[in-house]
Amino acid sequence: MITTVVFDLDDTLYDEIEYCKSGFTAVAEFFAELPEAPPAERIFGALWEQFTAGNRTNTFNAALDELGISYDDKRIKEMVNVYRNHIPRIKLPEDSRDVFCELRVKYTLALLTDGFLPAQKLKVQSLGIEKYFKCIVYTEQLGREFWKPSPAGFEKIIQILNAKPEDMVYIADNEKKDFIAPNKLGFLTVQLIRSARIHTSISAESRAKARCVIHKISQLPALLDEL
Fold first, then answer.
1. 3-class SS string, the chain
2. Less Cβ crowding at N or C end of the chain, within 10 Å?
3. pLDDT computed for residue 171 by the predictor
4. Domain, as residue range, for 113
């Protein structure tokens, strides 16, 4: 019997691309205040062009090159810090809120998320979702080596909630890393494929695939009732 529903955060409870827009806006506004810098709108445009073209590893460097702005490692690090530590301009979608309100009547809710700790905590605060969860595990607090697909975060939730894996469900988006550990531990796994999701890679490994797939979070309550 399902007793516990564990959620991923990014691209599961909201569209992560909205966070990216917020972060690049914060970086553009920061950089525009520097002497002889171009307007924030132009800086954002260069950053967004790189990101949407698929450049996810050296976005800042490539954007500054495009703008003809000289920089060093210190400047790039400043931009990364602004991105990770800014207060996100993101909101919890209404369908996610409705699902929380419906599910918490029947189940214990928890959150498990990877990512740099300040950024993940600021996302949770901006979305206003702490109140829905009995347990929140930031894998960064366990150590970078315990990010998914490590089972450590899932084992921590099992320990905190004193729950049985076979009575737990994990809902997430990224087939490359999200479902390997919970599948092995005995969770029921559900992949949510949001239309605006960032991570679209497909894994060839059967152990990486979720047992169920939905395309709207509003479909989750009915799925859990069926199971």
1. CCCEEEECCECCCECHHHHHHHHHHHHHHHHHCCCCCCCHHHHHHHHHHHHHCCCCCCHHHHHHHHHCCCCCHHHHHHHHHHHHHCCCCCCCCHHHHHHHHHHCCCCEEEEEECCCHHHHHHHHHHHCCHHHCCEEEEHHHHCHHHCCCCCHHHHHHHHHHCCCHHHEEEEECCCCCCCHHHHHHCCEEEEECCCCCCCCCCCCCHHHCCCEEECCHHHHHHHHHHC
2. N
3. 98
4. 4-15+91-226
